[in-house]
Structures are given as C-alpha cells and as structure tokens.
Amino acid sequence: MPVTDVTTDPENLTLTILADFAAPVERVWTAYSDPRQLERFWGPPGWPATFTAFDHTVGGIAQYRLDGPRGEKSSGRWEFTRIEAPTLFEVLDSFVDNAGEPIAEFPAMRMTLEFSPTAEGTRMVGTSHFESAEALEQVVAMGVIEGTKMAMSQLDTVLQDLRDYAQGKGTRIELLDDTHVRITRLVEGPRDLVWRAHYEPQLMRQWLLGPDGWEMTECTVATEPGQTYRSSWAPVGDTPGQAFGFEGEALLVSAPRRAVTTEKMQGTDGPVTLNDLNLYEEDGATLITLLVEYPDLATRDMILATGMVDGMEASYARMEDLVLA
C-alpha cells in the first residue's frame, strides 16, 4: 500500500500522512490535479468520488461528493489557497451540505500536499492542520485515517497504464479487511458492452457460467434500485454438482459505471453479501472491479474457499471469447 506512516500530533494540531509511489513526481501531480483521475481514488472502496466542480487555480473551488453503497452521501469542498506545480498544493478542506455550504458541526482543516522525488519514485507528505485538539479527535474518530489508507491503496492502478497494471494477470483478489474483498479483472472490450454483458440475459447466458459443464437456467435482472433479480445454474449431462441460484435486490444502478446489489443463496435467509460492481474503460479495455462486503470474517473465508474466484476467471475468459470478441 502507498501509505507508509500516519502521525497525529495533538500538540501541533496536525495529522500527517506519508505515502510512497512508484511513479515520477509529474505523474503523481497529474493524478491529483485531474478530477477524472482523482475520482478513481479519492474516496475509499465502496465510496467513489464524483467531482462536480474543479477550478485548479489559487482561489478556485473544487466540489465533490462520495456515494456510499447503500445510498449514503458525503460531500466536501476544497478552496485552493496555494499551488506550486508539480510539488505542492494547499487547500481549505470543508465538509459541506447538499447546497455546497460548510457544515458547522464538522471541522474544516487546512490540507497541504507536498510531492518530492525519491530513488523509487515519489514521496507524498500530506499534512492537515486543525483549529483545535477536539477537531482533530473528531476527524480521527470518523475513520479518516482508515479511509485514507484504503482510498490511496487504489492509486497504483491510476498511476499505471491500465494494461500494464492488469493485462494477462487474470482475476485477482485482495483482502482489504476482515469483511471486504476487492476482485479485479481486465477484459478487452468497451465499457458499454461489458455493462450489457452483465445486464442483458441473452448475453449473460453465454458467459456467466463458471466452470465448463454448467448452464444458466434462470436469469431475471434488476435494472433499477428496488428491483430484485434471480440467477440459477444447473450441471449439464454428466457434470457433477447440484443446481443452485442467487437472488437479491438492486440498491444502486448507474449505467454503465456502477451497480450495487445484495446477494444470497436462493431459498435461504443468508448470509447476505453486498456486491459493488464498478467498470472503468481506458483505451478500449475495461477494468472490472467487484467490491464484496461480507457480514463477518468466517463468512468471507467460507465463501472464498468454495473456489469462487476460479469460477469467476472461467466466466470472464468466456466473456472475452464469446461476447466481447
């Protein structure tokens, strides 16, 4: 992970984050000064950022919101007070309401980000200055440290060419914490078509099959929040195994970028997982990212032990061969 150290200093009213990146200063600066790139890592997994305004000049304003998987929203605003490209910028960072006005009960902070070259790439020192020890304690209690670490763990993907980062590496899994897993797979094809492959039954039946020897026997999709879906599979011929299926509800659908659904085995009370699907396209290839939230560690390990990731890889390979080709 890029974050190597976090220090809170109640005496000097600061929170300092140290991070190292395997990329030159100019490349890291671009990631922080381009709102479309910022959106890919500013929010932690499950809370992607959307910048609705970005005036990267002294006195300019950047406005953003973070959208949680269950419809939660949090919004912030930067006022740029100092810019020295490509090594430093400083903002007044505030929590804001739906109208973009600062929320009085949440502390504002002055945040300085400094970028310097190292033998391996770039070191970033981010220092947030608070008006009181109570304000510092409040932000720490809100989980800012953990959220920042998880958010910046996504930056390696942004700093590399997408194909350099993921091509030929198959389906990869990252254990983010006891209840969150991130699964990624690069496929050769445009995002719009990858989205259709996830939401059009005639396409889903071609690839969403897991290992060879299975067929999809039921496919009801949910294309709007509040709708329910059902998917069932059964072995073909002499293939061993028993028929099974999943069902759930769509919580968020933002085509062709993101969809959040619940999931559980058909005919059971659970366990229920939260599946957060994100699609990002670059130069004709699409990175599929699935963030899965489990109710507890035991459930996470039980489900992963079923060979789920191997089945996903077989399906994604079939998607490339049969649908995207």
UniProtKB/TrEMBL annotation:
Coiled-coil stretches: none
Kindly give the InterPro entries that the UniProt entry links to this protein: ASHA1/2-like_C, START-like_dom_sf
Looking at the record, the residues that make up the Activator of Hsp90 ATPase homologue 1/2-like C-terminal domain are 23-159, 190-322
Question: Organism's domain of life?
Answer: Bacteria
Q: What is this protein called?
A: Activator of Hsp90 ATPase homologue 1/2-like C-terminal domain-containing protein
What Pfam families has UniProt attached to this entry? Answer: AHSA1
What is the organism of origin for this protein? Microbacterium azadirachtae
Q: Which family does it belong to?
A: Belongs to the AHA1 family.
Gene3D superfamilies given in the database record: 3.30.530.20
